[in-house]
Amino acid sequence: MWALIDCNSFFCSVEKVFHPGLEGQPVCVLSNNDGCIVALTPEAKAIGLHRGDPIFKVKDIVDRYKVEVFSTNMYLYAAMSKRVNSIMRKAVMHVEQNSIDESFLDLKGYERTYPLEEFMRELAERIRLYTDIPVSVGVAPSKTLAKMGSKFAKKYRGYRGVCMIDTEEKRRKALELFDLSDVWGIGSRTFEKLHYLGIDSPLQFADKSESWVRAHFHKPGHQTWLELNGIPCIDTSEIIQNKNICTSRSFGEMVSDLPSLKASIATFASSCANKLRGQNTGAQAVTVFLMSNRFREDLEQYGNSVTTTFVVPTSDTLEITNAALRILEHIYKPGILYKKSGVIVSQIVSMNQIQGDLFDSIPNRPQRQQLMKTIDALNHRYGLKTIQLGVEGDSQQPWKVKCEHRSPNYLTDLNEILTVRC
Predict the structure, then answer these.
(1) Which of 46, 201, 271, 298 has a Cα at 20 to 30 A from 73?
(2) Ranges of H-type helices in 92-142
(3) Burial class (CB in 10 A: 0-12, 13-18, 19+), 167
């Protein structure tokens, strides 16, 4: 059996942890540059707000109902996510973090010792008690069914936080009630194809024969069909590693000078390299892109991107950043007001699968890897960006995002630690 633990309205829940007076109040978290709503509480949804709403368009609702608004603070959310996952890992041996607010737990063998539904309910209560983060739990034979169960647990209070799909009757009932477009693994194109083939519910899809599924869909569609029938076959750790990693931002102010763009690209490249090392992978390609402000028709428009490859897949910050900066110098066009830039690393493989190359331009690669480990350890101990590349510049730069409503980094910065006044 698998369990999926999903933190409810995670970004908003983290903000409410440090602002306890907000319990029961409408709360929203904004995107970069305080542009659009990216997370909101059920109370905020009830007054007519939606994810994706530009904040300036709903300002009258925000003011009328006194909605508490926060800027995104990923450092704070990541730190709280780490605490939630550490509680899970103390209770269950095998945990796969699927995203910042979701994790799969392998419960194989635990049914011999514990009633699984009560075991997960106790774990959910422990997470709430230790972190004040509410969670919804789905328990089922496959990850896709467990994900469906967590959504039922979030929607219906009668489940008391845990929905367990452990019988054929429950499985078929869940597939009958669930929205086909919300099934994990069914994207917009697959949904359209299923609808074209006359399938309008997950149950109809699951009831099709395996030969029919193989004839109409590729491997991902077949895997989803197996999962809906309670046959686990999706390795989420493999999916996460094979994804491209993209770090990009819309600038707080438009910039045109090359040094500012270099600082942004170096910052994004460093972030990508750090993420690669965090999952013990390397990338064989890096892409850099630049964009002007497409909403300013009065300005000259320009956008470009270029990709380069490495001889040996790498997670070395210096190597990736140098390659990204060379691309930037190639695609940079003077006189343009740029609104966004970004770095993408792709062709990602496990570091355990990387082979050396006779013509590798970096002869001291083992020493460079040890240097990266040391830097990561220091930044983990003393705070992110304690050690960084000089080209990244300081925090007071025009391209940095606006975050007028950002909460302090209560959990990771001693200078911003929570203070209590009696």
Answers:
(1) 46
(2) 116-131
(3) exposed
